Amino acid sequence: MSTTNAAQAAREELGAKFAGELVGPEDPGYEQARAVYNAMIDRRPALIARCAGTADVAETISFARRHDLLLAVRGGGHNGGGLGVCDDGVVLDLSLMQAVEVDPGARTVRVGGGCTWNQVDAATHEAGLATPSGIVGTTGVGGLTLGGGIGHLSRKHGLTIDNLIEADVVLADGTQARASAEENPELFWALRGGGGNFGVVSSFSFRAHPVSTVIAGPTLWPLEQTPEVMRFYREFLPAAPRELSGFFATMTVPPADLFPAELHLRKVCGVVWCYTGPEDAAAELFAPVQALGTPLLHGVAPMPFPALQGLFDGLYVPGLQWYWRADFVRELPDAAIEQHTAFAEKLPTLHSTMHLYPIDGAVHDIGAADTPFSYRDCNWAEVIVGIDPDHANAGVIRDWTVDYWDATHPYSAGGAYVNFMMDEGHERVRATYGENYDRLAAAKGTYDPANVFRVNQNIEPSAGA
Ligand SMILES: Cc1cc2nc3c(=O)[nH]c(=O)nc-3n(C[C@H](O)[C@H](O)[C@H](O)COP(=O)(O)OP(=O)(O)OC[C@H]3O[C@@H](n4cnc5c(N)ncnc54)[C@H](O)[C@@H]3O)c2cc1C
Question: Which of 211, 218, 287, 465 allows an S-S link to 130, with CB 3.0 to 4.6 Å?
Fold first, then answer.
């Protein structure tokens, strides 16, 4: 079927029963509808089906299966490898499904499968609550949650999946299922880290925690002090109370009002902190940080939690080129720190960066086999990203990222966080799930034996499941 025919066929077959929008290559909104966050990804689907509800989701899955078309599911469209879009197939776009409903008494929030985190943060904040998520508000709830979910609140309240209470799912055969500890527990287990392999989640229900004003912001040091700062950080944070989180970064200071003009475009290392404990304890907690080396900036101050969540949204706008590599890290030996320092000196562009996100504290309270997220004994999720607006620099950012990863991977735990990976092959996916892979493959055999949901970090269904 040609790409034009697919859109035409969808209109004829789905017609009036489809409540959302169908967009084909001939339609005026097509270019915008096919674009994803990472501008390095340039794919042309035959049909984009913007679903208005679960009936549309089931119809779209059925249409793709009937015509043997590849099916990509799009939540927030942020995925680094562009897993929310495909060439020639159908994109099932959830962006119309954005209801957010907070229950302040029960401290829970129900979230539509196409929401972004800034929508959730805004709603929960009104009730003085927050659910652990990522560090950029425009990221989709769907992809981030299904891969794990690492952010500022993880040391205190765990990963996003550790706060998932239930999920409503449209399965590959078009039927609907609720997944929770009580209902379809194996599906519930698989969804908490196994990505989009098992179905389309139309709504998530999360626990939320009393988090309102946080004491947060960056401390920055001259790049030359990277070894000293990293050696301090690797001891300081794991010993700090769980109310404190801080991700380490090497970066170029953006020319933004947030930073003093004399620091603009200077390469630095730093930590972006988030403290949810009592304000009067903060000065003592941060005293050793401020005494370390010669900080260029200690911009830590009380702010509403959503302000922290949106701090980087203006820098990391949609439409930049991104090249990703990642690893899980147990320790930060001096030899690894040497490599981090060397590659920080070679940061190729303004936006390029390396982050170490802490995943100790409450993340370690859950067993390695309790969810598919198997690296529960690691202390950091490392991500190296070459980023630039200009496609002409695609090779430069890719080479820096890959060389950096090659140099630091030997000091890693083996696998990487699925949500920080691009298309890196099946062995890498296996390494990431480790001993949980076979159980995931069996669940895939039960819920999606034909591998309809394969535009993802794919779990191959095990034979005979
Ligand atoms: C700027 C930026 C910052 C980030 N920061 C963090 C961070 O702090 N912490 C963190 O953990 N991750 C972070 N990430 C990574 C992020 O978790 C992944 O990119 C994730 O895949 C994004 O989800 P999405 O829904 O936006 O993506 P999409 O591209 O829409 O989808 C990604 C994958 O999830 C599947 N999917 C999405 N929604 C659903 C659904 N409702 N049902 C079934 N399958 C679905 C898709 O099929 C696809 O395979 C960041 C990414 C970016 C670009």
Answer: 211
Q: How far apart are CA 387 and CA 161, in angstroms?
A: 28
The pTM for the full model equals 0.97
Which residues partner with 269 through β-bridges?
A: 221, 250
For 444, residues 6+ apart whose C-beta sits below 8 A from its C-beta are 190, 194, 197, 198, 451, 459, 460, 461, 462, 465
pLDDT in tens, 161-205: 999 999 999 999 999 999 999 999 999 999 999 999 999 999 999
Going from the Cα of 196 to the center of ligand 1, the distance in angstroms, rounded, reads 10
CA distances from 231 to 220, 236, 334 (A): 15, 9, 8
Q: What are the pocket residues of ligand 1 if the criterion is a CB atom closer than 6 Å to any ligand atom?
A: 37, 73-80, 83-84, 94, 113, 134-136, 139-140, 142-144, 146-151, 195-196, 200-201, 316, 419, 455-456
List the one residue out of 109, 69, 110, 108 whose CA is nearest residue 92: 69
* Model pLDDT for residues 304-349, shown as the tens digit of each residue: 999 999 998 988 999 999 999 999 999 999 999 999 999 999 999 9
Query: How far, in Å, is the centroid of ligand 1 from the Cα of 77?
Result: 7
Pick the atom of ligand 1 nearest to 82's CA.
29
